């Protein structure tokens, strides 16, 4: 047994690691967060709730307004050592929740349907433990990151000048994962989440009277051609394939809802997805060329803009080992197949300056998928997930 594993095991008998009282209070707190969702970049009240929850644990410092509305609590041993960051997300989704639960969203059209409310409750539970157990060496940073859902938050946090003060050596995170049994995790070194980005295409011709379309320039043919042409550039398949790529048309529109006008403008929105960043460069080039060709054939102007840009997320071997030790010490079985996830995750940005890894924690097999209007984070995950993170803290800064 190596040193790190022994440190992890030393906590096994610590019945106070996550007291029942903390779990009960954090469950109620999650319900509060769930009732009051805020979208990416607008997490003002959520950040205030986080600050109010962290303050009694007396961190050495709380940084607010990081990269928008991010909050980071610093627990410093005052001794040299590793800086470990645990990260969760503040934001909810612009989707109407379908739920009869008493704590359902009170905000029309917005809801916590990715479980970020649960991730915050997990880190707040770790904060309680850190309030009672200071790190012996190095520092622990609890990072409540804004704007994960649109892919902008981690980059903005890192670009914030104050991030230099808390730059981590090791960064860890989790995501709850419907479809995977409770009590199981998915974790492996290497690619963890695919790269993705939104491509917005605007085709511009000239409107005309519907009786004289020859006096206008219609984008109809280009629109009709581009949908299958773009889709054919990324047809999915096994995500384990290094060349995996997927193009999903998410929106298309053209002209006015009128019978008297021949259309002069069309839009196509597509999401491009690849296993790794290198594949994305190629897909972007191919998709851009397809648009240029189709526009030229129809003598249209065109504009392409990029949105929600996610780099692929890569698990560092040493950081993965810390998570693996902690999961095994909690008797959580680990699957390494089925990765990377097709869905993207902006946590990968932290891997640019730190040894970073994240794992997926099973939310159960009979629950709705992430982003479905009836998804709800399972409260039963709060305690085991907090225990896993506490074991990581003990390994790195104990
Ligand atoms: Zn999400
Ligand atoms: Zn999420």
From TrEMBL:
Keywords: Hydrolase. Residues 197-297 form the Peptidase M20 dimerisation domain. InterPro entries: Amidohydrolase, Bact_exopeptidase_dim_dom, Peptidase_M20, Peptidase_M20_dimer. Pfam families: M20_dimer, Peptidase_M20. It comes from the Bacteria. PANTHER family: CLAN MH, FAMILY M20, PEPTIDASE T-LIKE METALLOPEPTIDASE, PEPTIDASE M20 FAMILY MEMBER. This is Amidohydrolase. It comes from Paracoccus maritimus.
């Amino acid at each position: 047994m190596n040193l790190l594993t022994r440190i992890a095991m030393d906590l096994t008998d610590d019945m106070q690691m996550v007291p029942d009282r903390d779990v009960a209070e954090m469950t109620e707190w999650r319900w509060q967060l769930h009732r009051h969702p805020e979208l990416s970049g607008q997490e003002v009240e959520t950040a205030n709730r986080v600050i109010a929850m962290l303050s009694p644990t007396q961190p050495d410092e709380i940084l607010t307004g990081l990269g928008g509305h991010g909050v980071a609590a610093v627990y410093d041993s005052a001794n040299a050592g590793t800086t470990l960051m645990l990260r969760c997300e503040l934001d909810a989704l612009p989707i109407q929740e379908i739920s009869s639960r008493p704590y359902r969203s009170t905000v029309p059209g917005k809801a916590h349907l990715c479980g970020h409310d649960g991730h915050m409750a997990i880190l707040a539970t770790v904060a309680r433990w850190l309030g009672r157990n200071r790190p012996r060496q190095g520092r622990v940073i609890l990072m409540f990151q804004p704007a994960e859902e649109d892919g902008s938050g981690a980059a903005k946090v890192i670009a914030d000048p104050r991030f230099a003060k808390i730059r981590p050596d090791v960064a860890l995170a989790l995501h709850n994962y419907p479809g995977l049994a409770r009590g199981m995790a998915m974790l492996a070194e290497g690619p963890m989440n695919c790269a993705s980005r939104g491509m917005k295409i605007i085709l511009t011709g000239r409107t005309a009277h519907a009786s004289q379309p020859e006096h206008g320039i219609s984008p109809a043919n280009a629109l009709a051609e581009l949908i299958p042409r773009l889709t054919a550039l990324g047809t999915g398949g096994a995500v384990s394939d290094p060349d995996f790529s997927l193009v999903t048309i998410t929106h298309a529109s053209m002209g006015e809802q009128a019978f008297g006008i021949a259309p002069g403008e069309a839009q196509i929105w597509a999401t491009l997805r690849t296993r790794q960043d290198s594949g994305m460069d190629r897909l972007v080039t191919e998709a851009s060329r397809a648009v240029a060709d189709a526009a030229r054939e129809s003598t249209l102007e065109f504009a392409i803009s990029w949105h929600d840009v996610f780099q692929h997320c890569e698990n560092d071997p040493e950081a993965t080992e810390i998570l693996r030790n902690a999961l095994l010490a909690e008797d959580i079985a680990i699957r390494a197949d089925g990765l990377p996830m097709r869905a993207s995750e902006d946590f990968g940005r932290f891997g640019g300056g730190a040894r970073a890894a994240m794992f997926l924690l099973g939310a159960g097999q009979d629950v709705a998928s992430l982003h479905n209007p009836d998804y709800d984070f399972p409260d039963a995950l709060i305690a085991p997930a907090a225990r896993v993170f506490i074991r990581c803290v003990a390994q790195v800064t104990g």
